[in-house]
Amino acid sequence: MKFKQGQEFTYERSFTKEDVKGFIDLAHYTGRHHEEENQDGEIMIQGLLTATLPTTLGGEYDLLVYQMLYDLTKPVYTGDHIICQIRIDQAEEKETRFTTSWTSSARTKKTRWFCLVTSRPLN
Fold first, then answer.
1. What is the pLDDT of residue 36?
2. Residue 86 burial class via C-beta count within 10 angstroms: exposed 0-12, middle 13-18, buried 19 and up
3. Which uninterrupted H or E stretch holds 23?
4. Rounded to an integer, what is the distance from CA 29 to the centroid of its chain?
5. Closest among 54, 59, 87 to 69, alpha carbons compared
6. Average pLDDT over residues 83-97
7. Please, which residues have CB within 8 angstroms of residue 24's CB and are 6 or more apart in sequence?
8. How many helices (H) and strands (E) does the chain have?
9. Is the pLDDT of residue 123 over 60?
10. pLDDT per residue over 60-88, tens digit each?
11. What torsion do the CA atoms of 47, 51, 52, 56 make, to the nearest 10 degrees?
12. 49-84: buried (b, 16+ CB within 10 Å) or exposed (e) per residue?
């Protein structure tokens, strides 16, 4: 697929307590705040687990990403519905590949923005 500057993508999902537990088992990414429920029965999701949502674009279109910068500003909890919006900032066709840079932001209904991501192409 050829990408165009200004093109936008949206990905949505909610993470469960089982997802958080699975990430603990897979990545050994532990911490009491990722294992114990808060007063509302929710568990704080690991920042790196929520950060997988913007990478859906790469998986969907078989992209290799050189660099991604994450700014995780607020916690997100199990059951929160996450909406991730990605905007292509730059798209360029080269001899052997197509390069893009993009900006992503994610929000929940409770939190305006909790994750801002900037990617950079391999030159």
1. 93
2. buried
3. helix 17-27
4. 17
5. 54
6. 83
7. 30, 34, 35, 46
8. 3, 5
9. no
10. 887 777 788 888 888 999 999 999 999 98
11. 160
12. bbbebbbbbeeeeebebeeeeeebeebbbbebebeb
- Averaged pLDDT of the chain: 86
Q: Which tokens is 37 given?
A: 């429920």
Instruction: Report the alpha-carbon distance of residue 92 to residue 110 in Å, rounded.
Output: 37
Full DSSP string of 62-73 = T---SEEEEEE-
Kindly compute the dihedral angle of the four CA atoms of residues 34, 65, 69, 71, in this order, to the nearest 10 degrees. Answer: -40
Give which of 113, 95, 96 is closest to 105, Cα–Cα: 113
Task: Please state, in angstroms and rounded to a whole number, the distance separating the CA atoms of residues 112 and 65.
Answer: 26
90: phi then psi, degrees, rounded to nearest 5: -150, 140
Q: Mean pLDDT over residues 31-39, rounded?
A: 91
